[in-house]
Write a structure and sequence with these properties.
about 270 residues; nine-stranded mixed β-sheet; two-stranded antiparallel ribbon; 6 helices; Rossmann fold; alpha/beta
Length: about 270
């Protein structure tokens, strides 16, 4: 196994619904203009892109400007963030905060990750449009909707049946026809749909799930937060030339993955 380390800024995601990015500073106090924000890169046509009201458009533009100033450089990812209506994936009482760069509670002890982390993890997948992607941890469906703009097919597993049902209904209502959602334990993956070109896990696990690696094409990326209460790192793993190569990018705090992952390995 080969390990590499790429230093990045920390981004702490609070499981109680708040977020405290360490970089939170004067950048958040600047009112960005919309000019130069929207990119012309082509993006997958999954989902419907309703015309947002002007206040939402301004908030989106400010968010995109902020993401550009950070580590998000993939134009297709930025366009997906611009086109997916995050306000449709949060609770009604949180819609005014939909484009703040913060995590928000979606109930059941789960959160919708902050836009920066969604964008950054999506960028690490290096998607070009023709891939089949497996997501573990559907939540409200926002990350799946972003992936639907970036890949050909998205398979998403949510361990909470109620969340899975609501996310499936929400994604269908918004027109994301290339996303399949099912309830189940993501530790086992989606074997009948394998192999996948890329895999993303949106909850922290103490180790890389072996069954998911078996469902990943050689050379394909698996992006996930790895660790537990003692600390978590965002990693990208690949199987290359018979070795498992792992890159570490930043320290994070995600809600823990539940299910079989909590069973000690034999």
């Amino acid at each position: 196994m080969v390990l590499t380390w790429t230093p990045r800024r920390n981004c702490n995601i609070d499981p109680n619904g708040g977020v405290s990015p360490i970089y939170l500073s004067w950048l958040h106090l600047i009112a960005y203009g919309a000019s130069g924000v929207l990119c012309l890169a082509a993006c997958h046509a999954g989902g419907v892109d309703p015309a947002p009201p002007s206040d939402t458009s301004t908030a989106r533009a400010q968010l995109l400007a902020e993401l550009r100033r950070e580590d998000v450089r993939d134009e297709r990812v930025l366009m997906a963030i611009a086109r997916v209506p995050r306000e449709g994936f949060v609770r009604p009482q949180d819609r005014a905060r939909a484009y703040a760069d913060e995590a928000l509670s979606i109930g059941s002890g789960q959160t919708i990750s902050q836009p920066y982390m969604v964008a950054y993890m999506s960028q690490l997948l290096e998607l070009r449009g023709g891939e089949r992607v497996l997501e573990i941890g559907t939540g409200s469906g926002y990350q799946a909707a972003i992936l639907a703009k970036l890949a050909r097919e998205v398979y998403s597993i949510e361990i909470d049946p109620a969340l899975a049902a609501s996310a499936r209904e929400r994604l269908a209502h918004l027109g994301y026809e290339n996303v399949k959602v099912r309830a189940g334990d993501g530790w086992y993956g989606w074997e009948e749909a394998a192999p996948f070109d890329a895999i993303i896990i949106t909850a922290a696990a103490p180790r890389i799930p072996e069954r998911l690696l078996a469902q990943l094409k050689a050379g394909g990326p698996l992006v996930m937060p790895m660790g537990d209460e003692g600390g978590q790192s965002l990693i990208r793993a690949r199987k290359q030339d018979g070795e498992l190569k792992i890159e570490r990018f930043t320290d994070v705090v995600f809600v823990p993955m539940t299910g079989a992952v909590r069973t000690p390995p034999q």
